[in-house]
Every structure is written in C-alpha cells, then in structure tokens.
Amino acid sequence: MKYKPNYARDDTKIGRGLKKFHLSKKLIVEIKTRLKKNKTLRILEIGCGKGIVLLELLKIFGNKLELYGLNLNRYHGIKDKKDLIINAKDKDIILSDFDKRNLPKISFGNAIKLPYNENYFDIVISNVTFVHIKNKAKALENVYRVLKLRGIAFLQLDSYMTEYTFKGKIPGLYTRLNKKYQKNYLPRFMIGKECIPIKDFSKFFETQGIKIKVIRAPFKDKLKEGVGYAVIFWKSSDMLKFNLIYDKEKSERLTKFMRSKNPIVYGVIDVYKGKTNY
User: With a threshold of 0.70, does the pTM exceed it?
Assistant: First the structure.
C-alpha cells in the first residue's frame, strides 16, 4: 500500500465542511453578491478532500454554481462520482436527483500546474491544503492564472503553533524567529535564510498592483492552539509573477529537520533562492 500522510489517514482531516472553513461566511456573501449579476458561477476548490464543501455549496445554490474540485491523490477521498454521493450521505447532506446529476467535477493534479485554462473560474477556494503544497509561490501564480479578471480567491494559506512539544534541542532557526517576533513562530516561506511572514509575503502581490487581504484566524483544540492565516485576493491583471526560484533540496531538508525536532509541525517549508525584492 502506498504511503498516506497523517492528514489522509484521519477521515476528519479530509472531510471538513463549510463550518471548518474560516472564510466560509465571506465566501457565501461573495457568491450571493456575484449571483445578482451573473446567472451562474464557476468555482474551484483546491484540495477538496471528500468534497464536503463543494457538496454543501451544491445543496445551497444548486445549478447556479458549476463546481470543480482538485485533489493530488485518489486516497484524499474521492475516486469517482459514486464516492461523492456516499460522502454526502455520511455527512447528512441530502441530495436531490437533480443535485446528483450536477455533482462537482473532480480532477487529480498538482496545484503548481493546475489542469485548467486561464481565466476559467470566478472563485477559487482552498482550506488546510496550501500548507502541504511544495512551492506555494508557483501554486499562487497558478491560482491567479485560472481566475477570471475580477475573480476572487479565498485561501487558507498558513498556520503556526503557539505551543510546541519539542524532542531534543530547539532548532536555532526557531530561536532566532522567537527572538525576532517575540512569539513562537513556524517558518513557512524562506527566501535565502530570511523568514517571510504572510503579512510580508503579501507585499509580492501589492507591488504588482494586486489587492489582497491577510486575515488572522486563531484556532484551538484539545491538543494545540495557534494562529492560522488566510488570504483573499482579486485578479486585476493578466499575470502574477513572483520571480522566485524554488530550492527543492533545501526545502525538503529543512522541512524534514524541523519535523524531527517538533512533532507538531505539519505541512512543508518552502525555501526560495535569492533575496526579497519588495
């Protein structure tokens, strides 16, 4: 059997619905607002898991939405349309015969090379997926590419823990980040040896005239507490280009090292070559 990451072994991690999506209220308002001017909207969810968010949107809006989902692997929850119907039943989402004929279209692929044409979607959403994507900058460029002009993206982009359980010595990188930010900090984007917080990473959008909002989302459960960061941005030009070169070897090495010292760390850390250019 092929290896499954922890989040794919636990059914609850790939079966989250709108209630677990921090941006869901803003998303619903945006859909309703856009439907006043458009008969239908085309929406993509990156990392759709078991398709629960898409199925809930189908139940709310019916044929007003053309829904698409992307998963990296088939073990993420859906192999075919029959699985969507089973998943809906498991979550007490009652689908009409009409709904079953208009199920979300599920594809498999990597977010850094989305298998869709440019200017295709009105809205792109993603929840608890970007932390696992290698080369998030490239994935963000792709999200921008497939959005229509004036389209909008709602992305849960990052999170970091405020309480850690360490095995052994604290890595020097944590020590430097804790001193700099006066709080426990998990690096997600590194350019050279410099950590780029999400609020600073957003400057890559702003310097290209792209409107973006960074939203702080504290979270807490029985095992941990921390802060999530989501972004909302609007497509206002033909292309988003970060001009960052992804360092695959250093990214994988740093991610592996940080995980070995901190068992709570999940997702991957991206390392890019060069220096900040904003």
Answer: yes
